[in-house]
């Protein structure tokens, strides 16, 4: 079959005579053209829909790859610095242990009171009273407030505060008030706080 035979049926054919119900009687060339168009549409739609699905999957994979790369960088950095982190942990444990040793136990509180008394007397103050207050438990430690009343000069107060700050145990000073006395000196009332481990919490 050659081209002239295919086009022969088109001589007396009018495109307006095309009827889908009589497609079997269409010229062969018209059938070929229609089937080519239908096939092209089917192929195009199938490829387009499949391509869209593949693009969506590609975007998901690309996003996942980005997250995995970031996660890999973080883990690689941690792995590369693992020895440094371990050394930092050891240093922190040593520092923490040193701080723990500065927290007095129950048996050391009398010695701490004695140190505060000596510091006050050494600063030229007259110790009026040193009273232990009720303990206050926190999550990891127990706070022991100590109310102190002394008499002296501003210079003596400054020397006392400096001396308490240099004690080997952790002692913080809070809520001070200074009032004049009849003897020309000053009265100071101040709360010192020391701390010890919360043994129950530690257990």
What are the defining features of this structure?
203 residues; alpha+beta; Alpha-Beta Plaits; 5-stranded antiparallel β-sheet; 6 helices; 54% helix; rod-shaped
Give a brief rundown of this model.
This protein is α+β, with helices and mostly antiparallel strands and 203 residues long.
Termini distance? 100 Å
**Class by SSE composition:** alpha+beta
- Annotation, overall tally of beta strands: 5
Portion in beta strands: 15-25%
Spatial shape: rod-shaped
- Contiguous uncertain segments of 5+ residues: none
Assign the CATH superfamily of the largest domain.
Ribosomal protein S6/Translation elongation factor EF1B
Series of H and E elements: HHHHEEEHEEH
Walkthrough of the structure:
The structure is a single chain. With 203 residues, this protein is an alpha+beta fold. The chain has 2 domains: 1-80, no CATH class; 104-202, Ribosomal protein S6/Translation elongation factor EF1B (Alpha-Beta Plaits, 2-Layer Sandwich), CATH 3.30.70.60. Helices cover 54% and strands 21% of the residues. It has 6 helices and 5 strands. It has helices at residues 3-8, 28-80, 82-101, 109-122, 154-165, 199-202, and strands at residues 126-132, 136-137, 141-152, 171-180, 186-197. Strands 1, 2, 3, 4 and 5 form a 5-stranded antiparallel sheet that branches. A hairpin with a 3-residue loop joins strand 2 (136-137) and strand 3. Helix 4 packs antiparallel against helix 5. The longest helix has 53 residues, at 28-80. It is rod-shaped. It starts with a helix and ends with a helix. The model has no long low-confidence stretch (mean pLDDT 81).
């Amino acid at each position: 079959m050659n081209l002239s035979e295919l086009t022969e049926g088109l001589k007396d054919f009018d495109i307006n005579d095309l009827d889908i119900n009589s497609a079997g009687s269409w010229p062969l060339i018209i059938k070929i053209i229609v089937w080519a168009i239908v096939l092209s549409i089917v192929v195009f739609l199938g490829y387009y829909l499949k391509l869209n699905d593949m693009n969506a999957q590609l975007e998901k994979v690309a996003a996942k790859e980005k997250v995995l790369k970031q996660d890999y960088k973080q883990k690689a950095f941690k792995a590369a610095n693992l020895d440094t982190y371990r050394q930092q942990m050891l240093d922190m444990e040593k520092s923490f242990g040193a701080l723990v040793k500065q927290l007095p136990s129950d048996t050391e509180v009398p010695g701490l009171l004695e140190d505060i008394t000596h510091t006050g007397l050494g600063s030229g103050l007259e110790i009026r009273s040193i009273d232990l207050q009720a303990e206050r438990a926190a999550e990891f430690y127990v706070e022991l407030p100590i109310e102190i009343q002394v008499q002296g000069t501003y210079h003596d107060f400054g020397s006392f505060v400096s001396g308490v700050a240099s004690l080997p145990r952790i002692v913080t000073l809070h809520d001070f008030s200074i009032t004049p006395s009849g003897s020309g000196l000053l009265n100071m009332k101040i709360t010192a706080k020391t701390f010890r481990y919360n043994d129950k919490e530690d257990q």
